[in-house]
Amino acid sequence: MAGNSLAPPTLAIDTRTRPRSDTNETRVVTPAGSFVSNISNISNPFLTPAHSNPFQTPVPSDCGASVLSVDPEAALRPDPGSEADFQVENNPFAFSPGQLNKLQNPKSLPAFQALGGISGIARGLQSDINAGLSLDEATVRTSITFEQAVRRTSDKFIETPERTPQPGSDSFVDRARVFGKNILPAKKATPIWVLMWNAYNDRVIILLTVAAVISLALGLYETFGTTPEPGGPPSVDWVEGVAIIIAILIVTLVGSLNDWQKERAFVRLNAKKDDREIKVVRSGKSFMINVHDVLVGDVLHLEPGDLVPVDGIYINGNDLKCDESSATGESDAIKKTPGGQVMEILESGANQKGLDPFIISGSKVLEGVGTFLCTSVGVHSSFGKIMMSVRTDIEATPLQKKLERLAVAIAKLGSTAAGLLFFVLLFRFLGGLSTDERSSSGKASAFLDILIVAVTIIVVAVPEGLPLAVTLALAFATTRLLKENNLVRVLRACETMGNATAICSDKTGTLTTNKMTVVAGTFGQSNFAKSENEKPGIQSVSQWAAGLSQKTKDAIVQSVAINSTAFEGEEDGQFAFIGSKTETALLQLARDHLAMQSLAEARNNEQVIQMMPFDSSKKCMGAVIKLRDNSGYRLLVKGASEILLNYCSAKADVQSLATSDLSNSDRDGIISIIDSYAKDR
User: Fold this and answer.
1) pTM
2) What's residue 58's pLDDT?
3) Which residues are catalytic, by number?
4) 317 by DSSP, 3-state: which?
5) How many domains does the chain have?
């Protein structure tokens, strides 16, 4: 636990007085009943402080391009084919989906400035960058025009006539009607007859069909078109053609019916896979909602590892970097600049290089934390447009391509051999006509026998059992995989699993329950372990907590609460901490054994000067807080213990928090404890 002496001596701190933010809240109510909530976020560790920040990287100020003014008509001109997105009947908002889409694809700072920056966009969407949407909103009570939204004379909503609310309306009716929901339209299910036709359109099957028709025709001719020899057995040559037709039907039905059933099962599976929870701010409080319920105007939280569900504008935060390779193809970490800061730079005419307030759907948060304002959802978002454009038919698998090449080779070789034999026998037949004393019907029958022999070679060459054997083998593999809880959508996709030599999976939440608890710990000379890990001489967590001084408990709670992005919420109707599983485990320990009452209260009681989000390269995160007695500052750090140990030169007493030098023997002892914990995993 870091004490006063752990603060770096060279740490530069802005010591200007900052107001407390326990319950400061101001709301401006318009005649229409709408409100703007101005909630102080100074002590919020996830938001960048409004005043000068000594830790924040300054914006480059070298000379460069500048924007003195922007033409809204040119910046927001519809792209060809997207005119319909700019026309919305009875739109109470200042912007249409098409105008908001001009912010992205490609990213457009002129469009951002034409819409009035982050404040203008929030006004036009009748939202608030601090409080988010109101939970009481059904139909929007007021209308706002484009000109009113982009004005920068006031942060209040412009007074406009009230709109008559519809009685019994659902929540956010106008937003869903104008901007849509964060749902992509379901792909039209493929009819069973189309799947049967696709299964039939295989070169081997077509080749078998030709062979079956010829074999059946010749068999019927032999049975009904010729006179059998007296006393001879009846001709049943047509049976071979019928057998080939039955094999074709089995292959077509088995393949198409399996694909039809699995396609519907995968529709339900994909709907469940996309059903995830997103952290949003509504009415000034954080909530976990379904990703499909996110609306334009919502304020969303961003944390490392998050997959961004919608397009938006970055409001504020700390050192936010995103991987946008899914949309741009570039794997570089893109540093984001708060929208308010970008607007100030654009208006001042300073250098625009590196300014990027745009949050793209489908991107992944690599570092930092923050909030952003949603501007596009569903089919209007960048990721939604990409997903709609790639809805194409499934390509043939490698096995299918191999079978097609085999069918072509068989057809060529069989036809070549049959043709060669036919012409050899034909020349022999023609050469013997001069001495042939048979009747005309006999000679015609002999010529027909030559043709039958040639066609028989083609029929015999076609492996009529191959498609049936492959289909039955894949169907058997699908059944085996289903018993192991693996659902196969396309029958022939089993070959992919059959060729796999290794399967890599993230075990957390996949092979485990995605829940963590603190089972053991070491604090100075004291340690503890839960019942399943108890060893002789090691106390339980309750005994350990009871032996700590109140000063030590407060210090641990302070570090756990401030150095965390998790928050309080409900899961299945029960109180729970929501966020990173490591952080929620530490918070649960503080709540159960260290007398932490409220996470929000613990955070509001501290004055956070700077938040340093988790960095995967540094393997740690930190926060600088001002001590309550104004005697100095404290740097709280959380991260990989073996890495942080290398930076430590002193240790704190677990009871008094008095510091002393960290000796080599102390360091070796801590390393052995770290190794023992690593081996117990």
Assistant:
1) 0.55
2) 39
3) 506
4) strand
5) 3
